[in-house]
Amino acid sequence: MKYHRVLVEAVVFALQQIFNENRQADKVIEQVLKSNKKWGSRDRAFIAENTYEIVRWWRLLKFVANINCVRVEEEALFWQIFAAWRVLQGDKLPDWQDFKAVNAKEVITRNEEAQQLRKVRESVPDWIDTIGEEELGENWEAELHAMNTQAPVVLRTNTLKTNKLDLKASFSEIGIETETLPNVTDALVLPKRANVFSTELFKKGFFEVQDAGSQLIAEYLDVQAGMRVIDACAGAGGKTLHLATLMENKGRIIAMDVEDYKLQELQRRAKRNGIGNVETRLIEAKTIKRQRETADRLLLDVPCSGLGVLRRNPDAKWKLKKDFLEKIKQTQAEIITNYSKMLKKGGKMVYATCSILPSESEEQVKKFLAQNPDFNFISEKRTSPAKDGFDGFYMALIERK
Ligand SMILES: C[S@@+](CC[C@H](N)C(=O)[O-])C[C@H]1O[C@@H](n2cnc3c(N)ncnc32)[C@H](O)[C@@H]1O
Hints:
Helix content: 40-55%
Binding site for S-adenosyl-L-methionine: 257, 301
Protein name: Fmu (Sun) domain protein
CATH architecture of the largest domain: 3-Layer(aba) Sandwich
Organism: Emticicia oligotrophica (strain DSM 17448 / CIP 109782 / MTCC 6937 / GPTSA100-15)
Largest sheet: 7 strands, mixed
Strand order of the largest sheet: 7-6-5-8-9-11-10
Bound molecules: S-adenosylmethionine
InterPro entries: MeTrfase_RsmB-F_NOP2_cat, MeTrfase_RsmB-F_NOP2_dom, RCMT, RsmB-like_ferredoxin, SAM-dependent_MTases_sf
Mean pLDDT: 97
Shape: globular
Strand content: 15-25%
CATH superfamily of the largest domain: Vaccinia Virus protein VP39
Number of domains: 3
Active site: 354 (nucleophile)
Order of helices and strands: HHHHHHHHHEHEEHEHEHEHEHEHHEHEE
CATH class of the largest domain: Alpha Beta
Structural class: alpha/beta
Radius of gyration: 23 Å
């Protein structure tokens, strides 16, 4: 493979931003790609894919490049890590000064050594590997391995504006092939990646990008047109928009969050999607109390570790800290206990996470039910990167007696 120096520089810059400036990978890549309008689609793919893959395999790559410092600060070391990554991809390195310190044979020998130890081979911090094994036992290894693969691009058809087969045909007309997914009603998956955000179809609000597992959550809430629904951790509205389409834009959805900028983004997305039944509400001291027993349906898509969506956010495994995980579990317990009071008697709620850990999911629901006998467990469901190729979501359907 022939490398263009300016593209490798862009990857090195992105990695420095992610690891040294503690910035989010997707935001950094977006900024880097915007910085040079002359880059074509191949150049952009080179930058994005190499950056994501190096972040994903960071621990393994440090090991094979024989870099032992905990925090990589020097720019020269980022170049060496890039070089080690490309050696593992089977490339012959160009004769650049920045790559001189990397011995391809040594990289390959050290990679063989790395295969003996799961946490290095699968490139994961010690503490996550320990917790994963404690909580998932023999299933952990397969999930960990599956979370190191690139997630497919999945679309959710906006059925307020089109239908799945028409959308498929419209994509085909612009040279983008899509496939349907057997058990996910409105989903289309792209066998070959493409920038769907730049299409007119996106600008017109005909679809949203949303993992297949995530698309099962709004459906699980069993909403109907005309209901009063609260989406209490709505964020930028991935699931709010889906709820609104399932409700055929009728009834009312109150979308809440503690972050105003996310709700503003939700409003922009709702407008693009042609949705008119959503009202946003920033959570303040009395917001929850005021909604006591007002909801027919309640979605609690709680904040979590994100240990089910590492395929899409590989930087999360390096940024996540053990004490954050403990704190977020406390927040989850508070949310389900306090927010569930917004549900009417006879109403239903879904508690959901994007974590593969039972301690954030099944166990939280069990504890809640043990302490709240006026709620009935109906059912629960999990998606799994290893078993069905979806991101790792959990959802439980609970009814208020
Ligand atoms: C998993 S994300 C939600 C994703 C969103 N539902 C979607 O589908 O795009 C969890 C959200 O909970 C919000 N959050 C954090 N603490 C909260 C709290 N105490 N009450 C309500 N929302 C909270 C976060 O800001 C974040 O947007």
